[in-house]
Every structure is written in C-alpha cells, then in structure tokens.
Amino acid sequence: MMHADTPKTRDFAALESLEGALDWWREAGVDADFADEASGWLAEPESENAVAAPPPPPPQKIERKTALQRALAQPEIPATRIDPATLPDSLEKFREWWMSDPSLAEGALDRRVPPRGVAGAKLMLLVSQPFDDDAEGVLTGGAGKFVNSMLKAMGIAEHEAYYASALPAPMAMPDWAQLTASGRGDVVRHHIALAAPQRVVLFGRAQLALFGMTPEQAREPLSIECDGNPVALLAAPDLRNLARSAARRETFWNRWLDWTR
Question: Which member of 61, 113, 116, 121 has the lowest number of beta carbons within 10 Å of its beta carbon?
Fold first, then answer.
C-alpha cells in the first residue's frame, strides 16, 4: 500500500536533491558563485571613517607673454664694449657694419633698421631708436609722415635730410648710462661725423647721456664734438610727445626759428 508523501518527507527529498546538485558542481571544479555584474575583487574594504580622495587639480593656464614682456626679458646691453678705433671709415661701410656687427646689440639681426639719406645733408634727424613700423629705414613708418610735414614747414626737402637712430633696433627700456659705458656715444658721434650734416636735431632728450649731457642742458642749442669737428645740435622732445602736444610743438617751432634765424 502506497502512502502519500508528507510535507516533512518532501522537504528531505528536496534537500537531498540540492546536495546532489552541489556535489555535482564540486566534482566539476566549480566552487565559487558568479554574477553578470563586475565587482572590485582587489579593492581594499572601505572603513566607516574613510576620507574621500581630493578632486584633481584644475588644468594649469598657460600664460602667453606679450611682445613687450618678451622684449623686457631679453638682454638690452651690447655684448661687448665698442672700440672707436675699429669703427668703419666711410658712411657706406658704417651702414653695413650697423646692420651686421654683433657688438652693437644682442638679438636677431632682422630687427635692425638702417639709416637713410646722403652725406652733407642740411639736417640730420636723430631719434633714440627706430619705431616698430620702420620697415624700410629710420622714420619710414607712421612717424615719418609727421616728420615730413615738419620738414616741409622748415623748407627742407626729404632728400635734403638724413635719418638716423642711436640704436639699431627697438629696445623696450634703454639704459642710456650703460649704453654710454659700452661705447655707444662714440658710435653716434662717429656716425654724425661720417654723415657730416649741417645741423642735427635730436628727438628724445634722454639720449643726451650719450654725449655726456643731461636733459636740463637741452634748453639751449648745443655744440658737440664729432671726431674733432663741432656740430650744431638742437635737442627736442620725443616725437611721440611732440605729436600729441600742441604746446610742445609750438615751443619746439619757436626754438627752431631762433636757432636758424
């Protein structure tokens, strides 16, 4: 006679079936549980007081220097002292030397600006340094238009003037005392002697240091020795200051009239 299974009998049967399935998996070499979702097996267990890692620092901003900052970072003193005895003995050779000799200044040669004009000019216009837009020669950029208008009022044609600068290339902040100590004053005097102008107008009184003078001495017309020859010189404000100030232009014009009368 068959007896129906009781609930207890069914529980034991299910348990035996489960144990048999587990034995089968063990014999197959599977002794771990697997899931579809990945877990960090090698991660250290997190403690209750764990501190969160700080966020990564923001990317550094690259600072790009301006042209002025780059110029200030470059050395502004000529590499060596210039020996007056080694200066060229003709105006043509001097111009070649001006554009190529490394003793004049450090830096790229393509930044140098040549003087222009002929020897024996009625007037030499001497600026402290070329302007940034003087591509073809001293005062060939925007400032040249202002100067040419001034020359026209003076009754001097453009070809009757000689255009020169005390420095061969633009310099951010010239130290005229150091430049004088390096022999730059001798170079400018020699340049004037070779060009042999009748008069010199110097724009930018700070460069008077090259001749051993101070801006206070510029109130009256001056005479400077250039290789043993006296040359009449009139010191004027920088061209930028003249262009922006009507009062300075009037003062300069009256001094010019008194000087040439």
Answer: 61
